[in-house]
Amino acid sequence: MATLIVQNGKHQGTKIPLPNREVTVGRDDKCYVRLTSGDVSRVHCSLLATNEGILIKDSGSQNGVIINGMKIEGDHMMRPGDLLKIGPVKFTMEIPQLAAPAGSADDDSIATWLAEGDTNASAADSETTEIQTVEANREHSTTAELPPAEPEAKSIAEEAQDIIRRHFEMKKK
Hints:
Layout: E1 3-6, E2 15-17, E3 23-26, E4 33-35, E5 45-49, E6 54-58, E7 65-67, E8 70-71, E9 75-78, E10 84-86, E11 89-94, H1 107-115, E12 131-132, H2 156-172
Parallel strand pairs: 3-4
Antiparallel strand pairs: 1-2, 1-11, 3-5, 4-12, 5-6, 6-9, 7-8, 7-10, 10-11
């Protein structure tokens, strides 16, 4: 099962497993991955996990779908190592056959993460405060993102959050 990983904002590191069917990403409540930014269309794009990667189809979004800094036209196959940007949210991906398996979160864990307040979030994070997955059979959802090809300048608060996140990841091991 392919997994998206959020690479920025207060949900950085959150993993969203993708089911073996086409799913949608957007602001609409019915989207499998829901992003609350005004830069994201109601139904921004669709994703279909395959053995080769994730097939991405822009649904005619106003701001487009960006992969590795380039706006895609039509269908595009996202592969491990690619950076996907939808609105302000960046994602990378993992495919079990191509990457080492990572632990996935259950629905209760995801709900807890989404419900947690983040009093230290910067103004830039305010539009990405809600990442949800909606599905009738309540399959697990995760997000993923690869680091950008060129390092981006981070604020002191973002650097501190990154250090704290890495500390807790190492503590878990």
